[in-house]
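Field: COMPLEX_INPUT
Field: COMPONENT_COUNT = two
Field: RESIDUE_TOTAL = 633
Field: MODE = joint
Values follow.
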Amino acid sequence: MVLLLVLAGLYLFGQFSRQINERSDRELMAEEQVWIDYLQTGLENGRVFILKTREVAVYPVNMAVNEVPALEDITEKLQGSQTGFPYRQLSQVVQIGDISYQIILKKSQEQKTILLNNFRRTMLFVLAGLFIVVLIFNWIISRNLWAPFRQSLQKIRDTELSKIHSLQFNQTDTAEFNELNNSLNAMRDKIYGDYINMKEFTENAAHEMQTPIAVVQGKLELLLQDQNLHEAQVQLIADAGAVLNRLARLNKGLLLLAKIENNQYEAAEHLSFTAITEKYLRLFDDLIRAKSLSVETVVENDFNPALHPLLADSLVTNLLGNAIKYNYTGGTIRIVVSKAKYQVSNSSLLDPIPAEKLFRRFNTSKEEDESSNGLGLAIVKKIADSNGLLLDYFVENGIHSFIVRSHG
Amino acid sequence: MKILIIEDEKALRDSIKQYLEYQGFICETADNFLKGKEKVSQFAYDCVVVDLGLPYGNGLDIVSAIREMESKAGIIIISARNALDDKLKGLELGSDDYLTKPFHLSELNARINAIVRRRTFDGNKVICFNEIKLEPEARRLTVHDKPVELTEKEYQLLEYFIANQRRVLTKAAIAEHVWGDEYVQAGDYDFIYSHIKNVRKKLLDAGSGDYIKTVYRSGYRMTDN
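Field: COMPLEX_OUTPUT
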């Protein structure tokens, strides 16, 4: 666009300039004609004419006649001055009777230059102004016209899958954007529907598996009652049963995760983590003593997040259970409860868990034991995430610590 | 003792029936809501085992129906759902217990025993196994009529064994009954060995027979043959 304006400007300027020049030249030629007429009149009187001023020079010469006048731009310096002035000069040798006269006519171009400068200035001003106004208009239109588009774009950028049902694309004044928004709304509905389906599927699948697992467990239990079994057979049944138990617990864990994901455990009240900890320390007492673990509980203040009781229980049993399970005989457990945080630390011979595997599902320690299904920490993380709690893990001097903190 | 089992999954229904019959209960079964309702209205059962996910109706409605009939039967709900709402609703409507699938048959058996015992009004609420007598109300053990001290966990262990006498009980089933589901998160089941050893010792010291036997690699059994 700028190019267009520049070209237009140059063209206009060129045309104007040319017009002025042509006008100027015509005037010069008209003036020459006047002098020629005058000279011819004078010739009849037998006089010879000589005139030499700055602007007019008419005198006889002994040169050949020009058929056509020569027009050119010249610069002349005034006497005693350094500056040159622009002139347009017409010179021609004409035949008046027997005598050849040299006619030289000069016209000051100063006015013209001034005029042209003014013109140029005005044009620049107008064109620049036009340009700026166009820019401003463009900007205003762009802002207003495209606002709904940008709105939709921003909404898309901010979208989270879990909150997608609250995404709404509104009606606008522009038909095309309405078309866009309606399509976006339709897409949102479809995505949300698929999302819910998938979540429900996970939950339903885990749920459906409960009965078959129960059946197989029952059959194995009945099989075990047979008095005529060999040791080897009993061993097989027992092994199968143990793994089935693991499957059953894995399924329960998956089901819990799916239900938490589906917001089925709304935080009902503020719970006392001190009380829950005491409850489970009592429950796990036999195990703690079997491993000769020394447990220290430091209660500075009670930790009272808002949680569903089942989730609170699950959180504590997972953390405490891990602290016992991954500990060595004679090891230590330290629990710190304060207003801002709940921390469970335990001694362990295991390596620190690498960060990228920490809360992933199915990440188990190297030992393949019956009780580990790799979901414990994933469950703890999910409980924390869906209830506004922060979860940290660090290892120092062979002590592994998990810290639960409330936001803010 | 007559038990009604209302469960639509045939394999599970058969397993429960087999186990309970071996324990001496007389069992009848129904595979859907309508048949279940029909049977309940026709016979007086001592305990009804109801699955919630039945065809043609909700198991909770059978619970209401049984209570409306002013039946004295105990009700235990079994379900794959572990929903607190269901449990509370069931208790509200009049069920005695709620067991989540998957469960050990020995666990179901122990719970049915407890319900039936609670609902028997003939005053004789003693659990016997030869010379071993348990009084559930007082949580007391006597051997040859002489009292024997037991911890709470040891009592629960013994009660479980007697309820499931002559059956092989897996370590998992025993641990989950006495110590609960969460225990397994903290370790394996081997810790129960020392508790069982204590119970055994106390019984033997009191002069009872050696009934609690270890079944190689799979669990324990209380039996007198």
